[in-house]
Structures are given as C-alpha cells and as structure tokens.
Amino acid sequence: MSKIFRRVFLLNFLILFVALLSYSQLTNLFFQKDFFYLVIILTLSSIIISYLVSKIIILPIVLNLKNSKEEFEKFNNDMKNQSHQKSFELELVNSALQEKAKEQKELAETLQEKLTFEIINREKKEQLLIHQSRLAGIGKISINMLNECEESISSVNFILQNINTIHKQIDFKNELVNKSMEQLHRVINEMQMKNEELKNFIKPNEEKKEFHLDEIVMKSLEMLEETFMNHHIKIDYNFSKSITLYGFPTEFSQVIFNILQNAKDALIEKDVLVKKVFISIKKDNDFASVTIVDNAGGIAKNIIEDIFEPYFTTKSYRKASGLGLFISKIIIEENMQGKLDFENASEGAKFTIKIPFFEENK
Fold it and tell me: Where does the record place the Histidine kinase domain (predicted)?
C-alpha cells in the first residue's frame, strides 16, 4: 500500500468516523445491526474511494509536481551552467581584449621608437649631405691652394739653391748660417711631403699595399721631432716590431701626424710644466693597435662626443679648421676598416687606433 493511498484512506476514515459518530448520536443506532452494516459499507466505500482518489487524482498531481520540480531543477542547473559558461567566455574575451590592448600599446611604442629613429637618421643624413657638400667645396679650394703652395715652396727652394751656389762661389763659411740653411732645407722637404699627403687625401691616387706599422709611426714622429724638441716635449714609446698591415701607409701616417700635432698644441696651450707623449704599438690576435697618450689634462666631458665631428675644434679659428680628427676617423674606419677611439686617461687624452689583420697578414 503506497504512502499516498494510506494518507488518503486515513483522511477518509477520520471523516467517516466523525460522520458515523455524529449519525449514531442523532439516531441512537450505535450498537444495532443496521449500524454495523452501514459501517462496513462505508468503510469499503472509503477504501475504494481512497484508492481511486489516490490513483486517479492525487498520484498524477504528485507525479506532475515531481516532474515539474525535476524540470525546474534541471532548468536551474542549465541556467547555472550557462551562467558559468558565459562568465568563463566573458573572462576569456576580457583577457583577449587586455592582451590586444597590450599588443597595441607595445606596437604603438615600437612605432614611436622607429619613427624617432628614422627622424634621427634622416637628420644625420641631411647633416652628412651638408658636410659632404661643404667638403666638396673645400676640396676644390684646397686643390688650388695646394698647387699655389707647391709653387711657393718650389720658388723658396730655388732661392735657397741660388744662395747655396753664391755661398760656394764666394767660399763663405759660417756654422750658424750653414745650420740655418740645413734647417730650411729640412722644413721645405717636410712642407713638400705634407703638401703631397694633403693632395693624396683630397684627390687620392695611392693604392693599398703592405707596410710596417712601426716604420710609418716613426716617419710621422720624425716630421715633428724638431718641433717637439723646441717645446721640450718628451716622447716615450714602446713598439712591437714586425707588424705588417695592408692599407694606405701615407694616409695612416697622416692620422698619426694629426694626433701628435693635437697633443703638441694641447701641451703648449695648457703650458704643462713637464710635457710628455707616450706612444705604444702592440699586436693582438685579430688586430694591431697604436695608442697615443699625452699629459695635457684631457678634454672636457661635455664635448667628447663632438671631437670627431667636422669643423669642431677646441682651438682658435686661426689655428685649426676642425677637420683633422674628422678626416682621421674616415681614413681609419672607412678606408682601412679599423677603429679610432678616444677617452680621457689619468693625465690627459688617449687615442687608440685599431687596424684588423687581413688573412694575408696573419
């Protein structure tokens, strides 16, 4: 007997019991035969009615309620699942949007950096074009001036030769005059050499060839030896011998000359008490290096980045053109694939030239 039927039957039985009790009080038939028949009939009827009501009416209602509850719970679970799914999808979309925003920001920063880099490069190219045009004009003027200097040097040389001839004819002997004449001949020879070097740089005709590094450095030193002695500048050097390079020896000699000339001018202008220049040549696995150091106090930090720029000079206008180090850097880094660097040493300026060895020189 199901729970529903028992409950319906119990309810009907209670109603029947109350009804019979009331009926017996009204009719005084409580213990009579007809009363028992009536009780039996009504009890059977109650059982039948309870069964029919529980099966036909209440049970379908309970089943419908149960199904509705299950459907509601299923719907509720589905809604929760959909809500969780939507939340997860929203989180994914939000993460994707944040990632896209981050990528857009990084892209914008990269584009800004590239734009800034391109602007700087364009400005550098424009400055280089301006410098090249100015250098081209200077080159044309310099060729004419060098030709005129060459004519003047030839004229002075011719005059000196005439003086020497006259001295020999009159048999004039004076040690001071003879020494002065020798110095003038040496100065004229140096001027002719420098004139030729400048012409070769402005309009190069030199071909690459092998040369001994220490010989080229000594050649540049010899050209300035007398000037250094006159200004009491002491030269110390430490050379590694037998270093052979392949390149432009005349141009390389001009670089050494320029750096030594700058060291001399700095020592004189700053009036250093004990003037010194140190030169070293050494050999590494992949390159040969020349280091030139003076004790003139170095260069101010705020202009170090500009010393290799064209037309920049720390000297007065009449003393320098501001092209010496600029030209030197071009010779070393573009013509000879080396490196020319500067730094302030403990006592003064330090220039380092590094020239790589080629296979045939190793």
Answer: 144-359
